[in-house]
Amino acid sequence: AQVARIPPDLARRAVETAPSSFHLYDADGQPVVHYGDDDVHFDPGSAAIEILDHGAKRSRSPVTADFVRFVKLADGLNALDAVATALICADVQQEIADLYWLYLVLLYTRKPVVTGAFAVETWGTMKDLLVAVAGSEEALAERPTAIFDVCPSPPLLWSEITCENLMDCAQHRVPAELVSMPLAGATGPATLLGSVVQHTAENLSGVTIHQLVEPSAPIVWGGSPAAFDMRTGTPPIGAIETMMIDCAYAEVGKYLGLPTHAYLGMSDAKIVDAQCGFESGIGAILGALAGGLLTLAALFAPLQELDNPNRPDDTTGMTVVGLAALVFLLWLWRRVRSRSILLEGER
Shortest CA distance to 179 belongs to which of 116, 228, 119? Predict the structure, then answer.
């Protein structure tokens, strides 16, 4: 592997040229998802390799019929602002899996799409699918209907596939979403803060590569870092440590003036139970409190469950209501506190 050292002033200029906000549009040309400020949006999880049928105890590989059901369900849930390419269908050749899932999403929903390419060669065809919906390349660049996840390889590596995908997104002004994912103690430093620092370095390199190709092209400061359980060799994505890393790197992105994204609202549960609902709900609320996030909610990593009684529409809906209640309580507390201070001053 070759080592490229990015000068600090080059990284600073890249951050300055990256837009602080932009919209994703639906197929009708209406702005739906606003990246930037403290706006919060939700979409379902992505790229699950297993599905858990309602009432089942064992998962299985998803097929096309499952994915179509998933897209229709996500399209009908008001709490989800976008639809993700959420299942990797086992009944198609894996060489075209990324093309196939985007094609199905575009067939069955008019919401914005969160997707990603698995190869250098397939990105162009996926872009052509989006152009067919938008009408032209210029229309797609002006009113983007999809965003591509682009993932560096921790620690501090960029593969040919992801680097080419990132540059293609910039060249055609299709929004890109950086998904750095250091695992604390495995592919990242053992401390939570150390993993945030590595995440920052990886995302800064991505922003620099992207903006060198096309300054002002839309890009998102995202990620999916996690804690790492040394006993089992697995990342507990529903653990509070994982959520702390996510909320911390979101603050870094907001400090730099960039739109942010996080994988939150997820669970380590293997069935639909109280653990699933609790971990998903806590993650969604923390993401909403962090603000300014497009948050992926209710992902059963690496599972998806379609008939989940703790379904994302309920979870995210309750998150919005709970957040409003929390804001009211904070306002009330401040009013009472200011009143008590005033009374003390009068004494």
Answer: 116
Instruction: Please report, for the domain that includes residue 334, its CATH number.
Output: 3.20.20.480
What is the domain range of residue 285?
8-346
Helices 120-134, 97-108: axis angle to 10 degrees equals 20
Rounded CA-CA distance 86/262 in Å is: 16
Number of domains the chain contains: 1
Q: What is the pLDDT of residue 287?
A: 85
**Can you give the pLDDT at residue 55?**
82
Q: Could you tell me the two tokens for 16? A: 């300055």
Return d(Cα 100, Cα 89) in angstroms, integer.
9
Strands annotated E in 286-338: 293-297, 299-300, 303-304
In the 8-state DSSP scheme, what is residue 48? B
What is the pLDDT, as a whole number, of residue 307? Answer: 46
Backbone conformation region of residue 334, classed left if phi is above 0, alpha if psi is from -120 to 50, else beta: alpha
Backbone angles phi, psi at 242, to 5 degrees: -60, -45
**Is there a domain that residue 2 lies in?**
no
Please report whether residue 68 resides in a domain.
Answer: yes
Q: Lowest-pLDDT range, 50-59, 74-83, 88-97?
A: 50-59
Whole-number Cα distances in Å, 331 to 117, 334, 336: 45, 5, 9
Give the pLDDT band of residue 132 (cuts 50, 70, 90): very high
Which strands sit side by side in the sheet containing 146-150, from one edge to the other? 41-44, 293-297, 260-263, 219-223, 176-180, 146-150, 113-115, 83-84
| Cα–Cα distance, 104 to 164 (Å, whole number) | 24
What's the chain's average pLDDT? 87
CA distance 228 to 196: 14
Could you give the CA distance from residue 326 to residue 332 in angstroms, rounded to a whole number? 10
Buried-state track 142-176, b at ≥16 Cβ within 10 A, e below 16:
ebbbbbbbbbbebbbebeebbbbbbbbbbebbbbb
pLDDT attached to residue 44: 87
Q: What is the pairing mode between strands 266-267 and 219-223? A: unpaired
More confident residue, 305 or 214: 214
CA angle (104, 110, 115) in 5-degree steps = 55
